[in-house]
Specification:
heterodimer, A: about 400 residues, about 0% strand, globular, B: about 130 residues, mainly alpha, about 80% helix, elongated
C-alpha cells in the first residue's frame, strides 16, 4: 500500500509539475499556426524526457550520486565547467521566463503591468525556498498544478478530432512558413527536455533517500507521469489549434494565449488560464532556482540540500538567493516574455548535448550503475532526439533571430 | 559504429535544416506583413467579442487592444506601401475599440468591430496572394 501511495503521489507530482511557461507557450504557438501538425514534436520530446527521467532516478538510486556530482567526479572539474556555464546560463534564462510567466498571470487578472510584480514574485520564490522543505516544494506546488488538467477537459469540451490529432503524431513538412515550423518544433523539444528537469529529479532522489528498492517506483512514475504530462502539453496544442487556427490568429504575445479557454468555459476559462499559468510557472520557478543552486553547489563540492537548515548549507542558500535576485532583475527590464520563452527553449535544445552526452556515458559506466546500465534502445532514443534537437536549434535559431 | 550512425543522422539533419533555411526566405514581405495584420485583426475581434460577452476583464481587453494597435502601427512602418492603407484603417478601428472598452460602452464597439472586418478583407487577400 505504501508503494502504491508513493507511485500515485509521484505520478500526481509529475503531471501537476509538467506544464510550465515553455511547454504552454510553444504548444499554444504550434497549435495556432500549424494546427495538429506539430503534435509529433510534443510526443518525441516527452518520450525522450521519459527516458532521461527514468535514467536519472535509476542512476541516483543505484550509485547514490547526483548526476552533477558524478559528472564532476568522472570527467574532472575542468570539463564540468562547460555544462556548469552553458546549462547554467540557459537555465537562468528559462527561470527569467518562468518568473515572467507568474507576473503575466497576475497582469491578466489585475491589469497592472507585469514588471511591477517581479520583485514580489521573486521574493515569494526565495521565501518559499528558504522556509519550505523539499517535499513541500516538490509536491505542494505540483498538486496545485493539477489545475492544468483543464486543458484536457477543454480539448474534450471542444470535441477535438482525435483522428486528426493522431495523424499529427507522424512528422510531416509544412506547406508554408518552414523556418517558423522548425523553430517552434525545436522550441517544443527544448521545453520538453530541459536538463534542469533530470538534474532536479536526480537531486530529489538523494533528498528523498532513494535506494535500489525504488527502481520499480521510479520506472512506473517516469513512464506514467511523463505520459500524462505529455498529454497535457498536447492538449494545449490541440485547444490552440481549435480556437486560434480557424480565426487566423498567430500567437505573438501571451495576451493572445489568455483567450484559449474562453470559448469552452467563458469567464471561468480566462480565470482558469491565469491560474494555470501562474501556478505552473511558480512551481517551475521554484524547481529551476533550486536546480541551479544544486548544479553550482554539487559541482563545487559544497554542502547542499533543502532538508537541512539554511545556515548548515550557507553557500547553497546564498547561491539560490543570488539566482532569484538576478532573475528578478532581468524580469524588471520588461523583456518580451513570449520571445524570451521561445529563444530560451531553443537555446536549451542547442545546449542539450553538453548536458545529455556526459550523462549517457555515466549511465553506461558499470562503476556507477553496476548491472543497471542502459540498454541500446534507451541510449538510441536519447541520442537521436538530442542530435535532432541540437541540429534544428543550430539551424533555426539564427534564422528566427534574423527574422525578428 | 553507433557513433558513426549518429554522425550520419546529424549530417542528414544539417542538410535538411539548410534546405529549411533556404525555403524560409521565399515569402514576400507583403505576404508576411499581411498575415500578421490579419492575425492582429482576428485577435482584436476575439478580444472585443469576449469583452462584450463579459468573459474577460476590462483592463485586460483595453491593454490587449492597445498592444494590437501599437503592433500594427509598428508594422506599418516596415510594410510595403500597397497594404499600408488597409493596415492604417485596421489600426484606427482597433483604436476605436480600445476607446469603447475604456469607456465601458458596449454599444460603441459595434461600428469599430465592423470596421475591423472591412479592413481585414483586403489584407486577407494580400496574405493569400502575396500582395500586389
Amino acid at each position: 500500500v505504501k508503494k502504491l501511495l508513493e507511485i500515485a503521489l509521484g505520478i500526481v507530482t509529475s503531471v501537476g509539475g509538467f506544464l510550465e511557461i515553455g511547454s504552454l507557450g510553444t504548444a499554444a504557438q504550434a497549435g495556432a499556426q500549424f494546427g495538429f501538425q506539430l503534435t509529433w514534436a510534443v510526443a518525441v520530446g516527452t518520450l525522450c524526457l521519459m527516458f532521461l527521467v527514468e535514467m536519472s532516478g535509476r542512476f541516483t538510486a543505484v550509485s547514490h550520486h547526483t548526476i552533477v556530482d558524478a559528472m564532476r567526479e568522472r570527467f574532472g572539474f575542468d570539463f564540468f565547467l562547460i555544462p556548469l556555464v552553458f546549462v547554467g546560463l540557459v537555465t537562468l534564462l528559462v527561470l527569467v521566463a518562468e518568473i515572467g510567466g507568474v507576473c503575466l498571470a497576475l497582469q491578466l487578472v489585475t491589469g497592472i503591468s507585469f514588471p511591477w510584480f517581479a520583485v514580489p514574485v521573486g521574493f515569494a520564490v526565495w521565501l518559499l525556498l528558504w522556509k519550505a522543505t523539499f517535499g513541500v516544494i516538490e509536491e505542494g506546488v505540483s498538486i496545485l498544478g493539477l489545475v492544468t488538467v483543464v486543458f484536457v477537459v477543454a480539448a474534450f469540451a471542444l470535441h477535438a478530432p482525435l483522428r486528426e490529432v493522431a495523424a499529427g503524431l507522424v512528422p510531416s513538412l509544412p506547406t508554408a512558413d518552414r523556418a517558423q515550423y522548425w523553430f517552434i518544433a525545436v522550441s517544443i523539444l527544448g521545453a520538453s527536455i530541459s536538463p534542469y528537469l533530470f538534474y532536479f529529479y536526480s537531486s530529489g532522489a538523494i533528498e528523498d533517500r532513494w535506494d535500489e528498492g525504488y527502481l520499480g517506483i521510479n520506472r512506473v512514475v517516469a513512464a506514467i507521469g511523463m505520459t500524462f504530462g505529455g498529454v497535457l502539453s498536447a492538449a494545449v496544442l490541440v485547444v490552440a489549434a481549435i480556437v486560434f487556427q480557424p480565426r487566423g490568429i498567430r500567437i505573438e504575445r501571451y495576451d493572445q494565449v489568455a483567450l484559449i479557454l474562453t470559448e469552452p468555459f467563458g469567464w471561468w476559462g480566462f480565470m482558469l488560464f491565469a491560474m494555470a499559468l501562474g501556478i505552473a510557472c511558480f512551481g517551475a520557478a521554484l524547481e529551476i532556482t533550486l536546480a541551479l543552486a544544486y548544479l553550482v553547489a554539487q559541482g563545487l563540492g559544497w554542502t547542499w540540500g533543502k532538508n537541512v537548515r539554511p545556515r548548515q548549507a550557507a553557500r547553497f542558500t546564498l547561491v539560490y538567493t543570488v539566482i532569484a535576485a538576478v532573475a528578478t532583475l532581468l524580469v524588471l527590464t520588461g523583456l518580451e516574455p513570449l520571445k524570451l520563452t521561445l529563444v530560451s527553449m531553443a537555446l536549451t535544445a542547442a545546449t542539450l548535448p553538453i548536458a545529455v552526452i556526459p550523462f549517457l556515458v555515466l549511465m553506461n559506466d558499470t562503476h556507477y550503475v553496476g548491472t543497471h546500465g542502459n540498454g541500446w534502445f534507451g541510449n538510441a532514443v536519447v541520442l537521436v532526439v538530442t542530435a535532432l534537437a541540437f541540429v534544428l536549434a543550430v539551424v533555426s535559431l539564427p534564422l528566427e533571430i534574423a527574422g525578428s | 559504429m553507433g557513433a558513426m550512425n549518429v554522425g550520419g543522422i546529424a549530417a542528414v539533419l544539417v542538410i535538411a535544416g539548410l534546405g529549411v533555411a533556404g525555403c524560409g526566405g521565399s515569402e514576400t514581405d507583403a505576404k508576411q506583413a499581411a498575415q500578421r495584420a490579419v492575425s492582429w485583426a482576428a485577435t482584436a475581434r476575439m478580444v472585443g467579442e469576449a469583452w462584450r460577452a463579459g468573459e474577460v476583464p476590462d483592463r485586460y481587453a483595453a491593454r490587449t487592444l492597445q498592444a494590437v494597435r501599437q503592433s500594427l502601427r509598428e508594422s506599418i512602418r516596415h510594410a510595403p506601401s500597397d497594404i499600408t492603407p488597409s493596415m492604417q484603417h485596421l489600426a484606427d478601428a482597433v483604436g476605436a475599440m480600445e476607446q469603447a472598452v475604456k469607456r465601458r460602452d458596449q454599444a460603441a464597439l459595434v461600428d469599430p468591430l465592423r470596421a475591423v472586418e472591412d479592413a481585414k478583407a483586403p489584407l486577407a487577400r494580400a496574405a493569400k496572394e502575396g500582395g500586389r
